[in-house]
Amino acid sequence: MLKILVAFWIVVVPISGFGSDPQLLKKESSWNWPDTQRLMQQVQGYLEGKLVGDELQQAKLIASNANSTSGVGLLDTILTTTAKGEPAIAALKLLIDAPFTPESNTKIDAQLSSILANGSIPAWLKTDLQLICCRYQVQNDLFDEALQRLLPLSQETSSDPATWLFCMAVCQHHLMQRGSCLETLDKLLERETELPTRYAITARLMQADIKPLKEDSLDEIARLMNDVERRLALGRTGKTVREKEQSIVDKLDKMIDKLEQQQQEQQQQKQQQKNAGNSKGQKPNPGEKPMDDSQIAGTKGPGDVDQKNIGDGNGWGNLPPAQRTEALQNITKDLPSHYREVIEAYFKRLASNQP
User: Fold this and answer.
1) Average model confidence (pLDDT) across the chain
2) Which of these, 43, 32, 124, lies nearest to 84 by C-alpha position?
3) Quick check: 96 and 132 in contact, CB under 8 A?
4) Tell me: the pLDDT tens digits for 216-265?
5) pLDDT tens-digit profile of 154-165?
6) By C-alpha distance, which of 184, 226, 185 is closest to 205?
7) What gap in Å lies between CA 328 and CA 125, rounded to an integer?
8) Are 207 and 172 in contact (CB under 8 A)?
9) Helix crossing, 161-174 with 71-85: angle to 10°?
10) How far apart are CA 133 and CA 92, in angstroms?
11) Residues with Cβ < 8 Å from 80, sequence gap 6 or more?
């Protein structure tokens, strides 16, 4: 549900909340909004060498109307206006605006690399274009790629530091980088009253969601399973996916061992309580009297057992659907419904991806 809200608020919900009184902030912020008027002057100066006549006047009009804009609106204005004067940026904008396909990110990366190698495009514009591509990747669940590109970017030189922080927090949240995510969210929320409403609300939701996350918990295992499913849906089946799948198995084994140990301790405790009761003169129940020391137990019957035919080993692990369903139910019957559904869906997904 949180992922759906993130995607919805990034794309759909209108921007609001800018221009609030800085005095309402609880503490001094460690980051500031850039000077919008100065940025628009840079945009106009860049376009003067690219456009002439009516096209230049139209682009300047758009830029001048953005003098009171901040954040996401400013970032989109920079993309729209500079695309009018630079064909490479226009081609990048077309790719970003097009519906997402498995090949989309590869094409956008190639186009962005061409722009970054273009010496005629200023550094400040390249930073903003990279941030716009990161936002696109976050919107399409490409969190690893977005985080890798965000890290070397400078928040201070971006036209929209809030989007940089928000995208960073979303990536860290989905990749379960708990400590880093909470630090990024705290920094973003330093200017909570000035943020777009969708950023502020989603940041609070992410904060409440990831704060109680504990290592080796069912919650963490369920998130890992969801992350593997996301990667498989994107066609990723490489080393990272295999490592995460192994991590899930290891964590489940660790949890099972812990439960078995707890069960053994409970049984030992019950046995000790029973022995303590017997030592106080309580009569054991019939059939529960312990055997005397050094006494050979009597035997009854010849000790023969029926031989069971286990077949020739073919089909091991390939249970019929009814038996496989029963086995899954037995494995997950004692788990909360949320985790039971996640685990069942995970194993079904793995089965469907077997060669």
Assistant:
1) 79
2) 43
3) yes
4) 888 888 898 988 888 888 888 888 888 888 888 888 888 888 888 888 88
5) 888 899 999 999
6) 185
7) 54
8) no
9) 110
10) 9
11) 62, 93
Tokens of 344: 């069942």
**Cβ pair 75, 163 in contact under 8 A:** yes
Output the CA torsion 91→96→97→101 (10° steps).
110
Amino acid at site 172:
Q
User: Residue 277 pLDDT > 60, yes or no?
Assistant: yes
353's CB contacts (< 8 A; 6+ apart) are 232, 237
Give the residue from 239, 250, 182 showing the smallest Cα distance to 216.
250
| 112 token code pair | 């962005």
Tokens of 239: 């080393």
Backbone angles phi, psi at 101, to 5 degrees: -135, 165
| Tens digit of each residue's pLDDT (9 = 90 or more) over 302-329 | 555 555 554 444 444 455 666 666 666 6
Check residue 117 and report its DSSP letter. T
Which residue type occupies 157? T
Structure token digits, residue 228: 């593997």
Distance CA 166, CA 162 (A): 6
Q: How far apart are CA 143 and CA 181, in angstroms?
A: 13
CB-based burial, 49-87: b 16+ in 10 Å, e otherwise: ebbeeeebeebbebbeebeebbbbbbbbbbbbbbbbbbe
Which residue has tokens 């690399």? 113
